[in-house]
UniProtKB/TrEMBL annotation:
CDD domains: PBP2_CrgA_like (cd08422)
Residue ranges of coiled coil: none
Listed Gene3D superfamilies: 3.40.190.290, Winged helix-like DNA-binding domain superfamily/Winged helix DNA-binding domain
Listed name of the protein: LysR family transcriptional regulator
Any one GO MF annotation of this record: DNA-binding transcription factor activity
Species classification: Bacteria, Pseudomonadati, Pseudomonadota, Gammaproteobacteria, Pseudomonadales
GO BP annotations listed: DNA-templated transcription
Keyword DNA-binding on entry: yes
Organism, scientific name: Pseudomonas kielensis
Keyword Transcription regulation: yes
PANTHER family assigned to the protein according to its UniProt record, in alphabetical order: HTH-TYPE TRANSCRIPTIONAL REGULATOR, TRANSCRIPTIONAL REGULATORY PROTEIN
Amino acid sequence: MRVFVSVVDLGSQSAAADHLDLSRPVVSRYLAELEDWVGARLMHRTTRKLSLTAAGSEILPRCRQMLELSSDMQAAVSEPDEAPRGLLRISVSTSFGQAQLADAMAAYVKRFPGVSIDLQMLDRTVNLVDERIDLAIRTSNDLDPNLIARRLTVCRSLICASPAYLLEHPAPQQVEDLRLHNCLTHSYFGKSLWHFEQAGEQVSVPVQGNISANEASTLLRAAMAGAGIAMLPSYQAHVHIRRGELVRLLPHAEPRQMNMYAVYASRKHMPAALRSMLDFLVVRFPQEPEWDEGL
């Protein structure tokens, strides 16, 4: 089962052989034995690529569950690991990395000095296996079911503008008023439509503006410079609102919330460093984060 899952995740028998430190013939034999045991062909094999059969698609999630159970059983009877050590490669968005995760990682390595952190600030979804990422922080309400995730906290958004912008433009009183403003938009999230919950109802408002960007930090700087109204994550905007550098608008209308997760590819042989990092993040970023207090 471990061979089968590795072949699927890595895309080829040769890559799985290298990853598992097995020969290619052994990988082929194990796949054949699994198919004999199941009683069905699991993969279409061609010289160019591998693809799952209908039976393979049915068996894959069950294999993952059994491998996870096996790892849990081993962990339950094993001796506690020594202090975590080694390198962790972590993928995170630029805005969350700068606003929250950098400080969190500083606190983590003080507690676990044997661990080194390689932060990859990427405003795109990475392939954990191909890019050798141990852990990714993702904001989503629709995660890839093939990944394992631990829920961290909630990501709220706030509608904000600078005092300078509001001196020249009347503040919107209803979400529909956003149509009349220069809205600074994210290239991938709500570029032309912002979604709200207002008085228990879902409301969507078309927006447009002359600045868009593929990461929130740029929109934050543009909003503070008076360019327009932005929808910004509260983990980033809260400090600027408290300083008076930004003004929160439309507090009665809540932009669509999303969940934040720590995701990783497999529980198999989880290093102590990754296990300790997951436990640390769950405590550091609770369901009700401190940056939302008073907002």
